[in-house]
Design brief:
By secondary structure, the chain is α+β, with helices and mostly antiparallel strands. It has a domain of 140 residues. The protein contains 6 helices and 11 strands. The strands form 4 sheets. It has a 4-stranded antiparallel β-sheet. It has a 3-stranded antiparallel β-sheet with strand order 4-3-7. It has a two-stranded antiparallel ribbon with strand order 2-8. Strand 10 and strand 11 form a beta hairpin. Helix 1 packs antiparallel against helix 3. It is elongated, with a radius of gyration of 18 Å.
Length: 209
């Protein structure tokens, strides 16, 4: 299927939000990490590095930039204590202005309100997702995600100081860390003695084991 094209007047952030939320892209690439890799078109990394990143993300999880398509505010009962340092933050920057193509009824999300054109079609403003404004979440405190894409997610700051969402854990499997051999095998396979940064799924998968 054709991948959405970024228009001249569309910012990279707006394009990524639209591409990630595109209904056809979701149908063709249900794995968030795969869809993100395609939408972001990371040309700085080598093809081998991109493939390795996708394989690792598919097995352990992935890191997402936060947008209206993936923002979750957990209930207190959904948080889990992993013994990590936590911090409460309030989101006031996730603007979700929703537009639609009146011919196809397809919805698009933008971080700015204005005149948006996709493939020479002027989009119609639908609404503003103001419910994202002023919502508070805990950084460094994982929470269960029954609707996926993985078993758990956690908000953390990346190396640039931006808050991102890390998804980790296979929703179809139970952790067997009570079995010493299974735990040893998992931790050895994923080098859990050196799990990497907190904004990667491997770090949190290793913490879970």
């Amino acid at each position: 299927m054709p991948i959405p094209n970024r228009s001249d007047r569309e910012s990279k952030k707006d394009f990524l939000t639209r591409c990630m939320g595109d209904s056809k892209m979701n149908e063709e690439y249900p794995e968030t990490s795969q869809r993100y890799a395609i939408c972001s078109g990371n040309s700085k990394a080598s093809l081998l590095e991109q493939v390795c990143d996708i394989l690792e993300e598919n097995s352990l999880g992935n890191t997402e930039a936060i947008g209206p398509y993936n923002f979750i505010v957990p209930e207190d009962s959904e948080y889990e204590d992993f013994g990590e340092e936590t911090e409460e933050v309030e989101f006031n920057s996730i603007a979700a202005f929703i537009y639609k193509n009146t011919d196809t009824e397809e919805l698009f999300y933008f971080s700015t309100k204005g005149n948006h054109v996709i493939n020479d079609k002027i989009l119609e403003f639908v609404s503003e997702a103001a419910e994202y404004q002023g919502k508070k979440v805990q950084l460094g405190k994982p929470f269960l995600t029954p609707d996926g894409p993985k078993k758990r997610s956690v908000y953390v700051k990346n190396d640039k100081g931006n808050v991102v969402k890390v998804n980790f854990g296979d929703p179809n499997m139970k952790i067997k860390k009570s079995d010493p051999e299974r735990r040893k095998s998992f931790r050895a396979r994923h080098n859990c003695d050196n799990p990497g940064p907190r904004w990667k799924a491997r770090y949190w998968s290793c913490k879970a084991w």
